[in-house]
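Ex. 9. Protein: Raffinose/stachyose/melibiose transport system permease protein.
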Amino acid sequence: MTDPAPRSAPAAGRPGRRRRRSLGDFSAYWFLAPGLIVYAIFVLWPIAQTAWLSLFDWNGLTAGRWAGPDNYLRAFGDRRITGALGHSFAFIGFYALLPTAIGLVLTGLLSRVRVYGLTFFRAVLFLPQILATVVIAVAWRWIYDIDGPLNAGLRAIGLGGLTRAWLGDFDLALPSVGMIGAWMTYGLCMVLFLAGAQKIPRELYESARLDGAGAVREFLTVTLPALRGEIQVALVLTVTFALRNFDIVWNTTAGGPGSSTAVPSVYIYQGAFLTREVGYAAAISVLLTILILAVTGIVLWTLRERRS
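Predicted structure tokens for Raffinose/stachyose/melibiose transport system permease protein:
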């Protein structure tokens, strides 16, 4: 007959181990506390304060007057804001979709061709990301100038009829500013995709080639699915940059000519610091934040990993 005593001893010890484990798990959260406190003070509290200010009619100096949802209702009916949102969505094409497409095409080409000095080229392509946006804006303002190198190049090849003040043209100012954003972000996308492509097993490419796959099919069946995570990160970063864009627009066109390049951030700046409509500017900020969260959520949901 088997003695049950040896089995009861470990059973008695389980609650103690469970308690120690739960205490250990709980104590691990204390290591996160400093970061959470800093995040709450410098991120969550300003957001909450902005949301609170959006409910007041306040000029930033005198006492504010309770306005409730009036600032939000005004923003929804303001045609300048809806027009600015249209410009922001147009910038998504330049800041996010175009750089992502260029990065994927170049990554697909480089996955088939061995390039010497790839680390150097990656550093050069990433250079716009570490430059101050004000510096980039001033440099491109000179490039687009009527006497700048772009127009000089067009005159040199006999296309002087195309020269113009690019940033002063009502029809071309928006795409001209958009191309600055494309130049800034395509290096980031390409570096992300190249890093992801290096993790793809070479056997997959060899198998695809043995099956007779050409360059396009190899890209669509091997490279593109393997870069889903990198594409997701690139789109979230670049779409967010396009929607909250301010530095490039303000330092190149200040929203002009007219309002052809104005974005919501321009009206937030003008309301907060120029026209002294702080409550209205705060309401636009809250709406822009919600829009950015919604768009990035759609991007994450669309490109999520599907188990099937």
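Check your answer against this statement. Confidence is low (pLDDT under 50) at residues 1-12.
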